[in-house]
Structure formats: C-alpha cells, structure tokens
C-alpha cells in the first residue's frame, strides 16, 4: 500500500511543471484532508501489534514526501528566477546608438584662428551693426555720395541713407568716434554685396583691423601683417605688398602671399602666378581721422581687411563658396 503511494507520488512529482502545481500536490498529500493525514488517522483502527510498524512506515513516507516536495520547490524557484533574469536581461554586447557630435563650421574655425592670432598681438574685438548708415559705410570713410569708388561695391540699399554694410570698415569709424587713441582692435562680422557666383556670395564675412597711436608707420603695418601671415599660413610663407587704392587709406596696399598649394610653382588656384591675394590694407587716410575728430598731425594708424571665405577656400582648397552655406552635412563633416 505505501509502496504504491510512494510510486504515485513520485510520478506526480515528476510531471510537475510549476510552483502552483507543487502547492496543490503538497495539499493533496500533506494537507488537513490529505492522503497521508488520512493514513495517520487510520492507524488508530489497526490492532495494537501492527500499529507501531505501520506508524513508522507512514511517518517515513511522510518525511520523504516532505523533503522531496521541499527540494522540488527549491529547484522550481531557481528555474523561475533564471527564466525571469534571462527574459529581463540587457544585451550589453550590442553597439550603442551614438548621439552624433556637432562640430564647428569651417568659417567659424578660420574666423577664430585669425582672431586668436591678433588677440595674441594685443588686439581687442569690436562689433558693429550689419544694417548700417550710409554715413558710416561710405561718407565718413572718405567715400562721398558721388565718389566713383562706390561702384566698387554693389550695395543693398534699405533706404537712401541706410544700407546693408558692404564691408566691416564702418566699425573703424564707430569705434574711433567713441574712443580716444591708442586703439588696437579687430572687427569680425557679416557683410553684404549684391553679387553671386562660385567665388562671391551676397552675404559673406570679413575681419577688419585698426591700430591708431602716435608714430604708427607703414613699418608697423608690415610687421603686424607679416606676423599674421606667418602664423596663419606657416613661417616660410612669402609675403608681398602691392600698391593699391582704397579711399579710406593712403597709401594703400594689397597683400599677397606665396601660393602654399604649389609652393609658388604655379597652379590652378593661384592662376599660375605663384601668388594669392589675401588682404587689403593701408595707412588710415588723414581725412578719415579728421572726420572722427582725431588730429592727423598727432595720430596716425593703419587699417586692414580680409574676407574669411576667401581665406578658408584657400586653406582647405574649396572651389565653390556656396558650399559654406548649403548646410550639407557631408561637406561640413570633413572639417
Ligand atoms: N574694406 C575694404 C574692402 O572691403 C578692405 C580694407 C579694409 C582695405 C581696411 C583697407 C583697409 O575691400
């Protein structure tokens, strides 16, 4: 009888699948109305001489069932935990989703590279408005209304007296009007000209420079711009000053640098001349000093201006200015 019971129990234990089945099985055998409980109760009806041995068998079986149920419970719990951990696990071997880094626009990079060089030479940084009075953009810079030099710049007029600044030179006038010499600053910013092709954009960037003090001469201009060129393009870069004309400087010069792409052997970019034009400059015209109330007999100075796009195009061998403003990530990612 108890051998049968033991076999049945083992079969049922074998086929258990989960913890709720185990709870039922425990009730079935060991509960108040369970099989073994009934067996124990029925012992009292046995004759006294059989009772002891029968009692021992039932108790042994009860202990066996209890310990096997406990063992099974422990292993079912362990399996359940393992399954849960597996289903909730994170695969740390998968590559993460990268957030993607932004980077500086090539024009901003070149702009801050240039600014850094002048800041190290003691220049401060000034700004002026992009929508500018005709007076500052032209007149006080010695470009009167009927002056032919206005033909040099295709101006966007907002009204008769207001323009989009065509260069950063009006910042010279604004700063000189509100400060007394000595002055030493650069003025970076956007400028506008009605012109568009692969080397001209209606909006582009310039950096202006101005230095005013007693006894400033053309030698100072040459030293400062030579230092700039050597730091920007390399210490072995050739520099050349060519006579030129700007109404607000006298004398004026264009500054060329030896073509660093072909080492002056002649290439497509320098148009086989070996030279690249990078800057306009000159001694501030005494008429401009007078316009802002400086005494030209006491003070003198130099000014220079350069286009950032042009310098960036040379530096990175970019042949179309529009690439800077298309915002094509494939282009921008290269810098
Ligand atoms: N403003 C001039 C231009 O836009 C550049 C320049 C600045 C020349 C200062 C001389 C001195 O072409």
């Amino acid at each position: 009888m108890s051998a049968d019971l033991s076999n049945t129990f083992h079969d049922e234990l074998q086929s258990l699948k989960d913890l709720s089945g185990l709870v039922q099985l425990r009730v079935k055998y060991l509960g108040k109305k369970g099989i073994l409980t009934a067996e124990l109760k029925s012992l009292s009806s046995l004759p006294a001489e059989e009772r002891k041995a029968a009692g021992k068998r039932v108790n042994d079986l009860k202990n066996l069932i209890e310990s096997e149920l406990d063992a099974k419970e422990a292993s079912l719990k362990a399996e359940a935990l393992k399954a849960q951990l597996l289903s909730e696990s994170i695969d740390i071997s998968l590559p993460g989703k990268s957030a993607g880094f932004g980077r500086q626009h090539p024009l901003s990079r070149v702009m801050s590279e240039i600014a850094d060089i002048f800041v190290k030479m003691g220049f401060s940084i000034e700004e002026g408005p992009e929508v500018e009075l005709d007076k500052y953009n032209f007149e006080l810079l010695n470009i009167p209304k009927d002056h032919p030099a206005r033909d040099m710049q295709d101006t966007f007029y907002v009204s008769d007296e207001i323009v989009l600044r065509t260069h950063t030179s009006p910042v010279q006038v604004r700063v000189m009007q509100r400060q007394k010499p000595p002055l030493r600053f650069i003025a970076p910013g956007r400028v506008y000209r009605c012109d568009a092709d692969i080397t001209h954009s209606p909006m582009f960037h310039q950096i202006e420079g101005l230095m005013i003090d007693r006894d400033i001469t053309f030698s100072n201009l040459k030293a400062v711009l030579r230092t700039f060129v050597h730091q920007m393009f390399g210490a072995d870069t050739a520099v050349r000053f060519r006579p030129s004309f700007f109404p607000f400087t006298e004398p004026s010069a264009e500054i060329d640098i030896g073509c660093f792409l072909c080492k002056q052997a002649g290439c497509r970019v320098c148009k086989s001349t070996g030279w690249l034009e990078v800057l306009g400059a000159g001694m501030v015209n005494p008429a401009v000093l007078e316009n802002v109330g400086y005494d030209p007999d006491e003070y003198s100075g130099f000014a220079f201006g350069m286009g950032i796009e042009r310098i960036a195009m040379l530096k990175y061998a970019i042949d179309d200015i529009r690439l800077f403003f298309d915002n094509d990530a494939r282009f921008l990612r290269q810098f």
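Residues 2-46+54-73 form one domain. Strands lie at 124-125, 131-133, 162-164, 183-192, 203-213, 239-246, 249-258, 275-284, 300-307.
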